[in-house]
């Protein structure tokens, strides 16, 4: 189910209108990411987009970075919310609200960035324009991308947390935060790697959720 949502997200974001092809491309991409270390398989995404949709690198790569940024944002927001609820911390809830608004902040500062780089070297200006073009133009579009991202991760993390709760005898909240933290996209593990119990516990302990 998570893969279906992710394929829908790619199809909607890039305006492809070919859900079946997007799903096949996504499964191939995930397989490559699982096989290669250090998330090196992410480099296959632009190649697959070129193969299936004739999409140039300057469009697919910034789009991938935007979607991965939403992944990291949703994961960290979920972890902050769970810790805030577990600790009953108003400060953390305020931090979650501020962090949740970050994608909209990106939308508001894009015109300023374009103005700033307008008189830079052509290469820098072109690269910046390509990156800014990856940010959806309206709050509604950003909200749709984010909701699909959050839905995908909630399903995946909920199942992972349930499995960890059963086999490690931890609370569901601690399990959810643990899998959220160790699945952050910028971690140095491939998507298919399995984290050891010490690694998971090290991720949970700073949250104060382990007894």
What does this structure look like?
The protein is mainly α and 211 residues long. Helix 4 crosses helix 7 (122-133) and helix 9 packs across helix 10. The chain has one domain. The chain is 75% helix and 0% strand. The protein is built from 10 helices and no strands. The longest helix is centred in the middle third of the chain and has 31 residues, at 57-87.
Tell me the β content: under 5%
Total helical segments: 10
Count of distinct strands: 0
Mean pLDDT: 81
How would you describe the shape?
globular
What structural class do you assign from the helix and strand content?
Answer: mainly alpha
SSE pattern, N- to C-terminal: HHHHHHHHHH
List keywords for this structure.
single chain, 211 residues, mainly alpha
Topology:
Layout: H1 2-14, H2 19-35, H3 44-53, H4 57-87, H5 90-100, H6 102-117, H7 122-133, H8 139-168, H9 172-182, H10 197-204
Quick synopsis:
The chain has helices spanning 2-14, 19-35, 44-53, 57-87, 90-100, 102-117, 122-133, 139-168, 172-182, 197-204.
């Amino acid at each position: 189910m998570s893969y279906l949502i992710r394929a829908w997200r790619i199809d909607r974001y890039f305006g492809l209108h070919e859900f079946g092809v997007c799903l096949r491309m996504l499964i191939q991409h995930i397989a490559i990411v699982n096989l290669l270390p250090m998330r090196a398989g992410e480099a296959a995404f632009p190649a697959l987009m070129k193969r299936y949709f004739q999409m140039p690198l300057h469009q697919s790569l910034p789009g991938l970075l935007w979607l991965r940024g939403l992944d990291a944002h949703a994961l960290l927001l979920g972890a902050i919310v769970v810790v805030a609820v577990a600790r009953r911390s108003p400060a953390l809830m305020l931090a979650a609200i501020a962090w949740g608004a970050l994608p909209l902040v990106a939308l508001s500062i894009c015109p300023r960035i374009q103005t700033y780089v307008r008189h830079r070297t052509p290469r820098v200006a072109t690269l910046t324009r390509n990156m800014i073009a990856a940010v959806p133009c309206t709050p509604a579009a950003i909200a749709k991308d984010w909701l699909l991202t959050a839905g995908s991760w909630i399903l995946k993390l909920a199942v992972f947390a349930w499995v960890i709760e059963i086999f490690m005898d931890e609370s569901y909240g601690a399990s959810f935060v643990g899998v959220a933290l160790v699945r952050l996209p910028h971690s140095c593990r491939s998507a298919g790697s399995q984290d050891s119990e010490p690694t998971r516990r090290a991720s949970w302990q700073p949250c104060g959720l382990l007894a």
